[in-house]
Amino acid sequence: MEQILLIDASPRAPHSNSHGYAAIFMETSRAACTYIALRKNDLTQTVQKIERSSDIIFVCPLYVDSLPLPLLELFQKIEHSVMTQKPRIHVILNCGFLEPWQNDTALASVRLFCRQNGFRFGSCLKIGGGEAILRTPFRFLVRHKIRQFSQAVRCENFVELSVTMPVSKRMFLRASTRYWIRYGKKHRLTREQMTTSANRVEGK
Predict the structure, then answer these.
(1) Which residues pair with 55 in a beta bridge?
(2) Do 38 and 14 share a domain, yes or no?
(3) For 7-17, what is each residue's pLDDT tens digit?
(4) Domain co-membership, 194 together with 132
(5) What is the pTM of this model?
(6) Range of 30's domain?
(7) Which residues are 126's β-sheet partners?
Protein backbone atom coordinates (compact mmCIF):
# COMPACT_ATOMS: atom_id res chain seq x y z
CA MET A 1 0.00 0.00 0.00
CA GLU A 2 1.26 3.47 -0.85
CA GLN A 3 2.42 5.28 2.27
CA ILE A 4 3.92 8.76 2.11
CA LEU A 5 6.07 10.05 4.94
CA LEU A 6 6.54 13.83 5.12
CA ILE A 7 9.62 14.80 7.11
CA ASP A 8 9.77 18.42 8.25
CA ALA A 9 13.53 19.04 8.50
CA SER A 10 13.28 22.67 9.56
CA PRO A 11 15.15 23.47 12.81
CA ARG A 12 11.94 25.27 13.83
CA ALA A 13 9.65 22.31 13.15
CA PRO A 14 6.79 21.90 13.73
CA HIS A 15 6.38 25.68 14.13
CA SER A 16 7.76 26.37 10.68
CA ASN A 17 6.78 27.43 7.20
CA SER A 18 7.77 23.93 6.13
CA HIS A 19 4.98 22.61 8.34
CA GLY A 20 2.57 24.85 6.44
CA TYR A 21 3.69 23.39 3.09
CA ALA A 22 3.43 19.85 4.47
CA ALA A 23 -0.10 20.57 5.72
CA ILE A 24 -1.18 21.75 2.26
CA PHE A 25 0.28 18.59 0.73
CA MET A 26 -1.69 16.40 3.14
CA GLU A 27 -4.87 18.32 2.31
CA THR A 28 -4.44 17.76 -1.41
CA SER A 29 -2.96 14.24 -1.49
CA ARG A 30 -5.13 11.20 -2.13
CA ALA A 31 -2.56 8.86 -0.61
CA ALA A 32 -2.10 7.95 3.03
CA CYS A 33 0.27 10.50 4.59
CA THR A 34 2.16 10.76 7.87
CA TYR A 35 3.91 13.93 9.06
CA ILE A 36 6.84 14.01 11.46
CA ALA A 37 9.08 16.81 12.69
CA LEU A 38 12.70 15.69 12.51
CA ARG A 39 14.43 15.40 15.89
CA LYS A 40 18.07 14.49 16.50
CA ASN A 41 17.26 12.00 19.27
CA ASP A 42 14.72 10.21 17.03
CA LEU A 43 16.97 9.48 14.04
CA THR A 44 16.91 5.69 14.49
CA GLN A 45 13.11 5.62 14.65
CA THR A 46 12.96 7.97 11.66
CA VAL A 47 15.11 5.60 9.58
CA GLN A 48 12.75 2.76 10.50
CA LYS A 49 9.74 4.81 9.41
CA ILE A 50 11.50 5.67 6.14
CA GLU A 51 12.05 1.98 5.41
CA ARG A 52 8.35 1.24 5.92
CA SER A 53 7.24 3.97 3.48
CA SER A 54 6.82 3.97 -0.29
CA ASP A 55 7.69 7.66 -0.68
CA ILE A 56 9.56 10.19 1.45
CA ILE A 57 9.03 13.92 1.08
CA PHE A 58 11.61 16.10 2.76
CA VAL A 59 10.18 19.56 3.44
CA CYS A 60 12.77 22.09 4.51
CA PRO A 61 14.10 25.64 4.22
CA LEU A 62 17.33 26.78 2.67
CA TYR A 63 20.11 27.44 5.20
CA VAL A 64 23.21 29.29 3.94
CA ASP A 65 22.54 28.02 0.39
CA SER A 66 22.40 24.45 1.67
CA LEU A 67 20.29 21.90 3.52
CA PRO A 68 19.55 22.44 7.23
CA LEU A 69 21.66 20.54 9.75
CA PRO A 70 18.86 18.18 10.95
CA LEU A 71 18.50 16.78 7.43
CA LEU A 72 22.25 16.40 6.95
CA GLU A 73 22.42 14.46 10.23
CA LEU A 74 19.61 12.20 9.05
CA PHE A 75 21.46 11.58 5.77
CA GLN A 76 24.53 10.52 7.75
CA LYS A 77 22.41 8.16 9.85
CA ILE A 78 20.90 6.60 6.72
CA GLU A 79 24.34 6.14 5.15
CA HIS A 80 25.40 4.04 8.16
CA SER A 81 22.17 2.02 8.29
CA VAL A 82 21.30 -1.25 6.56
CA MET A 83 17.98 -0.80 4.76
CA THR A 84 16.23 -3.68 2.98
CA GLN A 85 13.78 -1.31 1.31
CA LYS A 86 14.56 2.12 -0.08
CA PRO A 87 11.60 4.38 -0.90
CA ARG A 88 11.44 7.10 -3.52
CA ILE A 89 12.62 10.49 -2.30
CA HIS A 90 11.00 13.83 -3.13
CA VAL A 91 11.67 17.30 -1.78
CA ILE A 92 9.89 20.61 -1.17
CA LEU A 93 12.46 23.37 -0.66
CA ASN A 94 11.68 26.94 0.32
CA CYS A 95 13.98 29.93 0.61
CA GLY A 96 13.69 33.53 1.74
CA PHE A 97 14.93 34.79 -1.61
CA LEU A 98 12.42 35.75 -4.28
CA GLU A 99 14.03 33.49 -6.90
CA PRO A 100 13.18 29.75 -6.65
CA TRP A 101 16.46 28.82 -8.37
CA GLN A 102 18.27 29.86 -5.18
CA ASN A 103 17.28 26.37 -3.94
CA ASP A 104 19.25 24.62 -6.71
CA THR A 105 22.39 23.93 -4.66
CA ALA A 106 20.41 22.28 -1.87
CA LEU A 107 18.44 20.31 -4.45
CA ALA A 108 21.69 19.08 -6.00
CA SER A 109 22.77 17.85 -2.55
CA VAL A 110 19.61 15.74 -2.23
CA ARG A 111 20.10 14.30 -5.72
CA LEU A 112 23.71 13.44 -4.88
CA PHE A 113 22.66 11.70 -1.65
CA CYS A 114 20.13 9.62 -3.59
CA ARG A 115 22.64 8.67 -6.27
CA GLN A 116 25.34 7.68 -3.79
CA ASN A 117 23.00 5.66 -1.56
CA GLY A 118 20.77 3.85 -4.03
CA PHE A 119 17.58 5.87 -3.62
CA ARG A 120 15.39 6.82 -6.55
CA PHE A 121 14.84 10.58 -6.76
CA GLY A 122 11.33 11.65 -7.71
CA SER A 123 9.81 15.12 -7.83
CA CYS A 124 10.81 18.47 -6.38
CA LEU A 125 9.14 21.80 -5.72
CA LYS A 126 11.26 24.93 -5.27
CA ILE A 127 9.51 27.83 -3.51
CA GLY A 128 10.81 31.41 -3.64
CA GLY A 129 9.79 33.94 -1.00
CA GLY A 130 9.06 30.99 1.24
CA GLU A 131 9.17 32.99 4.47
CA ALA A 132 6.29 35.19 3.35
CA ILE A 133 4.21 33.73 0.55
CA LEU A 134 1.82 31.76 2.77
CA ARG A 135 0.80 35.05 4.44
CA THR A 136 0.10 36.90 1.19
CA PRO A 137 -2.71 36.88 -1.40
CA PHE A 138 -0.38 34.70 -3.50
CA ARG A 139 -0.91 31.70 -1.23
CA PHE A 140 -3.14 30.19 -3.92
CA LEU A 141 -0.13 29.89 -6.24
CA VAL A 142 1.63 27.66 -3.71
CA ARG A 143 -1.47 25.54 -3.21
CA HIS A 144 -1.76 25.04 -6.97
CA LYS A 145 1.88 23.97 -7.31
CA ILE A 146 1.68 21.64 -4.31
CA ARG A 147 -1.41 20.06 -5.85
CA GLN A 148 0.58 19.46 -9.05
CA PHE A 149 3.46 18.11 -7.00
CA SER A 150 1.14 15.78 -5.11
CA GLN A 151 -0.31 14.41 -8.33
CA ALA A 152 3.17 13.84 -9.77
CA VAL A 153 4.20 11.88 -6.66
CA ARG A 154 1.05 9.76 -6.76
CA CYS A 155 1.25 9.02 -10.50
CA GLU A 156 5.05 8.57 -10.51
CA ASN A 157 5.22 11.21 -13.24
CA PHE A 158 8.18 12.98 -11.70
CA VAL A 159 8.65 16.70 -12.29
CA GLU A 160 10.67 19.71 -11.16
CA LEU A 161 8.35 22.59 -10.24
CA SER A 162 8.90 26.10 -8.94
CA VAL A 163 6.78 28.98 -7.65
CA THR A 164 7.27 32.47 -6.25
CA MET A 165 5.41 35.71 -5.77
CA PRO A 166 4.77 37.68 -8.99
CA VAL A 167 6.27 40.93 -7.70
CA SER A 168 9.33 42.94 -8.68
CA LYS A 169 12.56 42.40 -6.76
CA ARG A 170 12.44 46.03 -5.62
CA MET A 171 8.95 45.63 -4.19
CA PHE A 172 9.97 42.37 -2.51
CA LEU A 173 13.01 43.98 -0.87
CA ARG A 174 10.93 46.92 0.40
CA ALA A 175 8.32 44.62 1.90
CA SER A 176 10.88 42.27 3.46
CA THR A 177 12.83 45.19 4.96
CA ARG A 178 9.66 46.52 6.59
CA TYR A 179 8.91 43.06 7.96
CA TRP A 180 12.34 42.64 9.55
CA ILE A 181 12.31 46.14 11.03
CA ARG A 182 8.95 45.38 12.69
CA TYR A 183 10.29 42.00 13.82
CA GLY A 184 13.33 43.69 15.35
CA LYS A 185 11.19 46.21 17.21
CA LYS A 186 9.15 43.35 18.63
CA HIS A 187 12.37 42.02 20.17
CA ARG A 188 13.66 45.49 21.11
CA LEU A 189 16.29 45.63 18.36
CA THR A 190 16.92 48.69 16.21
CA ARG A 191 17.67 48.55 12.52
CA GLU A 192 21.25 49.59 13.27
CA GLN A 193 21.69 46.75 15.76
CA MET A 194 20.41 44.17 13.28
CA THR A 195 22.74 45.56 10.59
CA THR A 196 25.70 45.38 12.97
CA SER A 197 24.86 41.75 13.84
CA ALA A 198 24.61 40.83 10.16
CA ASN A 199 27.97 42.43 9.41
CA ARG A 200 29.58 40.58 12.32
CA VAL A 201 28.30 37.25 10.99
CA GLU A 202 29.66 38.04 7.54
CA GLY A 203 33.01 38.99 9.03
CA LYS A 204 32.80 42.67 8.02
Answers:
(1) 4, 88
(2) yes
(3) 999 988 888 89
(4) no
(5) 0.86
(6) 3-166
(7) 93, 162
